[in-house]
Amino acid sequence: xxxxxxxxxxxxxxxxxxxxxxxxxxxxxxxxxxxxxxxxxxxxxxxxxxxxxxxxxxxxxxxxxxxxxxxxxxxxxxxxxxxxxxxxxxxxxxxxxxxxxxxxxxxxxxxxxxxxxxxxxxxxxxxxxxxxxxxxxxxxxxxxxxxxxxxxxxxxxxxxxxxxxxxxxxxxxxxxxxxxxxxxxxxxxxxxxxxxxxxxxxxxxxxxxxxxxxxxxxxxxxxxxxxxxxxxxxxxxxxxxxxxxxxxxxxxxxxxxxxxxxxxxxxxxxxxxxxxxxxxxxxxxxxxxxxxxxxxxxxxxxxxxxxxxxxxxxxxxxxxxxxxxxxxxxxxxxxxxxxxxxxxxxxxxxxxxxxxxxxxxxxxxxxxxxxxxxxxxxxxxxxxxxxxxxxxxxxxxxxxxxxxxxxxxxxxxxxxxxxxxxxxxxxxxxxxxxxxxxxxxxxxxxxxxxxxxxxxxxxxxxxxxxxxxxxxxxxxxxxxxxxxxxxxxxxxxxxxxxxxxxxxxxxxxxxxxxxxxxxxxxxxxxxxxxxxxxxxxxxxxxxxxxxxxxxxxxxxxxxxxxxxxxxxxxxxxxxxxxxxxxxxxxxxxxxxxxxxxxxxxxxxxxxxxxxxxxxxxxxxxxxxxxxxxxxxxxxxxxx
Length: 639
Known about the structure:
4 helices; 5% helix
């Protein structure tokens, strides 16, 4: 915290040194001047929505989006505030998802991040920075399953015209309908942005502290009882689960500070010097109050702790030269990292190392080009080398072409070669068969080639296609041991989304077809995923409000699913008798309403379970949620 204090002290000095300049580039021209009707030397300005802006570190500023779009219903009703198409949720909110499609999560690069703890993690470029005319507060609330709730709130304000700070908190606690399924998480973010009145100096800072904690129940002990239809088990607390007294905890901390200085007049020479430093620490724990050999199998090691502990740290320093104007942006720099990874409870006789550390040196670069307002190119490259975790290469390249207004063609070519995520490297456990050490692994290399066609004026439609080639694909086999494939895994994806409108009735649909062209046994996944939303939207209550009402369907084809490992919080391949999930539609009915800048979301989730038995699963032995009434409130307050 001492580093954070120093940062805010420095910012405070800059703020106090600035004078308000009504002609500088920070002035927002959309503020309305109010005519009081009398002659007075006092001028009154009324802010508009265009005076409330938000951005990521390297994105453009955007106005706070308070529109009543149907796509928001896919986001505001989810605990991680994302559209989770291509995922399937567990029976309790805050307990994660199973990915039904292949995707590469870059937050797992050179760090410790189990897959099922990754769904609400905010990376360094996911933090919001604000610029607001008046103090602003946002609230997002959703009820929980059985007991608890989720609240996410943000408060931000400008101090003068040059400095903004924001405080964000998310708290989640949900008991869940099944035994031993409590989810308890919290997330605190402090962020700040400063720009000098002459635009020569700019700085961004944030501190984030996240915890993702879950009881692990191992799923339903007897699926025949669950599927038998006995009314006594409609109360899910009467169902026996495989584990009790087991818990997984994940902690995530980051201090971040980035500053830029323009030695010359930015209007004439958009040249800058940039320095970015951050420290990030991750911790993962799995603990039990007693052994569960009958469930995990193998032999229990006498006198070994009942808690597994892992951690990773990354101290990163980057110095860059930047050329930044509207048509051409280029930055290139040098990066130094100190990375360490620890496995605290090692068992010496198994020769499992307990600590890895290295110094990494590398280079980073970004390029953005805009031509004739019709063509835009974005490219990123990072290369680094270390003695412990090998070479790292990542490049992303996107070309956007607009041949006709509102018709966009996007092409992308991405490549990454990186050491496997640290959770694959070592593990120590009092269960003998959960101890492993993946020695001298090869880099996992992922190549992605794809494109998107956006037809904004033709039913608001987009079509997309992607091809992935993964060499040295790293996975957990059916014994929860890390493995690397000797041949490539090739995956094709094709899909689209469209919105149709007829009067006040609307149709929104999204589909994805996917196929593992080789080694399909290494990544089981459904061949088809689809979502359909038919709804009515219109003004109501003498146009004092606007409503949406309709039904949503979510469906994926049946497939032999991977299994969930509570110890690792990862997915492992199925055994000789795999359990198939999918093939069951999940239907929701909803009623949403907007009143000024307050939104109400009322969803009857999994409504078809009220008249048919729940046979839908997230993973083998883990049913998805039963019918629940999900209540959500979103409120924007511009004080």
